[in-house]
Amino acid sequence: xKTEYSLLDSMPLGAFVVSRDMTVxxxxxxxxxxTGIKSAAIVGTVLAESFxxxxxxxxxxxxxxxxxxxxxxxxxxxxxxxLFANRDPSCMERVYHTTVTRLAGDDPCALFTLExxxxxxxxxxxxxxxxxRRIETEKLLxxxxxxxxxxxxxxxxxxxxxxxSIISLIHLQMDTSADAPTQAHLGDxxxxxxxxxxxxETLYRKNVFDTIDIAEYLGIVAExxxxxxxxxxxxxxIDLKPVVMPVxxxxxxxxxxxxxxxNAMKYxxxxxxxxxxxxxxxxxxxxxxxxxxxxxxxxxxxxxxxGGNDSLGLKLVRxxxxxxxxxxxxxxxxxxxxxxxxxxNTGNVRT
Length: 351
Hints:
The protein is an alpha+beta fold. The chain folds into three domains: 6-116, 2-Layer Sandwich (Beta-Lactamase); 126-206; 210-351, Heat Shock Protein 90, CATH 3.30.565. It has eleven helices and twelve strands. The strands form three sheets. A five-stranded antiparallel β-sheet has the order 2-1-5-4-3. A hairpin with a 4-residue loop joins strand 1 (14-19) and strand 2 (24-27). Helix 7 (180-206) packs antiparallel against helix 8 (214-228), helix 7 (180-206) runs antiparallel to helix 9 (247-267) and helix 8 packs parallel to helix 9. The two termini are 81 Å apart.
C-alpha cells in the first residue's frame, strides 16, 4: 500500500487514504507534520480513533456518499473548523481546506487531501477586519458630515432671520420718518442688508456652505432690488455667465451690485422717463471676470467718475474691488448713458 501511494509523499499537501470502513491505509509526511501523528501509529486504525469528530452522523453520511456515488465532498474550515488539529500545543493552529475524493478499484477507497490555507485565511480575516473598520469609519464620517450640514444650515437660517429682523426695524424707522433724505439713506441700507440675507438664503436653499454660483446669487439680488425699488418703468436686461466662487467673494460682489444698480436706477432715467439697465457678468482674462452695469440716461456725475467726492455707495464699490484684487472703471458708451465695469479676480473657481 505504501508503494501504491508513494507519489503523494512529495506533494505539498496533506494526504491520507481510508477504506469504506474508515480504516486508514496511507498517511503522508505532511499529515505527520501537521497532526503530530506518525504514519506507523495511525495506519491500520480507524480514523475516528484519532479524530472522534468523524463519529458524528453528518460525516458518516457524507463520506459514505463518496464511496457510493463517487461525488467529491468539500469540508471547509469555515463550516467544519479544524478537523485535523495538531496535538502538540506548541504548534500554531492551521487552517485546512479538506477535499474527499473516491479512488476507483475493486475495493473503493477515499482520498483525503488537505490544503493549508492558513495564510490565505489570515489575509481574508485581516481584510474583513479592515473592511469593518472602514465601514465604521465611514459611518462616523457620514454622521459627522450630516451634523456639520445641519449646523451650517441652521447658522445660515438664523443669520437670514436676524438680518430680516434688522430690515423690519429699518422699515419701522422709515415709517416714522418724514424726511426724504433719511428715508433714502435707510432704503439704501436696507438694500445692502438684503444682499446679505439673500446670500444666506441661497446657501440654505442650495445646501452649500463654502462656494456658490455667483450668477444665480447676483440674479436674485438684482431681481429683489428691482422689486423693492420705488423707481417705476425700469427695463432691466440681465445676462450673467455661471461661475462658482467662494462665499466670501460672493458677498463682496453682492454689495457691489447693490450699489451699482442703485446708482443706475438713480441716474439712468432717459429723457422720455424710461429707465433701461443692462447687467452683464462675463469672463475677461484668465482668472478675471467683469461685472458691468450700464444705464442709458444722463449717467453718474463726472466728479464721481473721476474719483472725486465719491458717495458712500461708490466708496463701498471701490472697497469691494480692493477686496477682490480688482478695479472699477467708469465708461461713456457711444450710445449714451454710462457703464461701470467692476473687474475682479475669481482665484480658484469652477466655471
